[in-house]
Amino acid sequence: MSFPHRHDLETTTLLSRHQGDETARSLEGWRGLGGYEALRKAIGMSPDEITEVVKASGLRGRGGAGFPTGLKWSFMPKDDGKPHYLCCNADESEPGAFKDREIIRWTPHLLIEGCLIGARAIGSAHAYIYVRGEFFEDTRYLTAAVTEAYEGGYIGDDIMGTGWSCDLTVHTGAGAYIAGEETGLMNSLMGNRAEPWAKPPFPAQAGAFGMPTTVNNVETLSTVPGIVTEGADWYTQWGTEKSPGTKLWCCSGHLVRPGNYEFELGIPLEDIIFEACGGTPSGKPVKAVIPGGSSTAFLTGDELDCSTTYEGMQEAGSSLGTASPIVMDEDTDIVAAMRRIAQFYAHESCGQCVQCREGTSWVVRILQRIEAGDGELKDIDTLYELCEQMTGRTICVLADSVVFPLRSSLDKFRGEYEARMSPSLVAVG
Ligand SMILES: Cc1cc2nc3c(=O)[nH]c(=O)nc-3n(C[C@H](O)[C@H](O)[C@H](O)COP(=O)(O)O)c2cc1C
Ligand code: SF4
Prior knowledge:
This protein is 42% helix and 11% strand.
């Protein structure tokens, strides 16, 4: 595998440039930095022109699935006479992820600009930002910025005297992870329980309030103003053909310098972990990394020489997800780590699907037993069987989210599971 950017760890700060600097938070500060000029330019473009430039940039959704953003926008019906809605997904609840919060906290006007440009592209006159319920402080910054932008004529009627109008509402959730799944989010926005629905209907057909809707992640939409201002070629100078641009990386776990970083897509994962983040504080080898947030497959310490692109992480046997590597050093108890992950998903299951409701809690019970030293070898077979039963059979992929780390931990760290088995039961097993 070749790494064109092998030693180029210099951060390209398209999104993180103003993090840590309070200037960009106010409307005045943002305008001083050239803010809202991208929106002005976008209003001068037709919706199709905006969609085309985003398509040409190759931008892929940063909410986890990596779906091409311009293509998603092009699914929205045209001239159907119905209201269209843009929903910005700011629920950010995936364990390990903390990038959207930073965008909201430091550059709320960048996000507002991205939402308005996205709304214009899909023919929407009302955008919503659905914010995770626990983001109290960040929601304060965001609502203050929205108020200022309304007062300054950047949201609402006749934006910047252009004749184009668009409203924007900030809506807070109540702390459920499943409200981050796009149909769960829209249900919650409509005042229902945040339960995902089976597709079809897809959001572009009938989403929020039964109308055509596009759901996009905070980082996705915040990337759009730069693309509109500078053009698609500017954006594709970074990354690879299939994974252009830069990406925010939320690095946590056993690291000397954990934190939020922005890198060009494609640099090796091991460079992020060892060069940027300084490796493990104990100086001990890395045992495992969950590279894309807790719903992605484990990599071992020997598998980190992989390219941080959507395709590279897939080749390595995991996925980019939300680009949130959780690093575990040699002393980490993998069974306990997996049990904790499974507990999260069991707690957050909305309960509609048997395979998820029963499967996630069954996994937790087995892992608790193994962790306590009371497991049997046949428990490993049962866990594999549960992985089978929980994959691809449910309304949303929360059940699959447990399977990726679970199956990979069994494949790669089977010895750790076996070493925890009750000696008496191993003998009869
Ligand atoms: C269980 C579950 C939780 C999710 N949570 C989030 C989330 O917190 N934030 C997010 O942007 N996307 C989340 N997603 C993905 C969204 O459903 C959706 O794909 C995304 O918001 C689309 O935006 P994008 O195209 O810009 O990536 C989640 C998906 C699932 C299945
Ligand atoms: S997979 Fe789980 S979280 Fe998703 S709809 Fe079914 S029960 Fe709910």
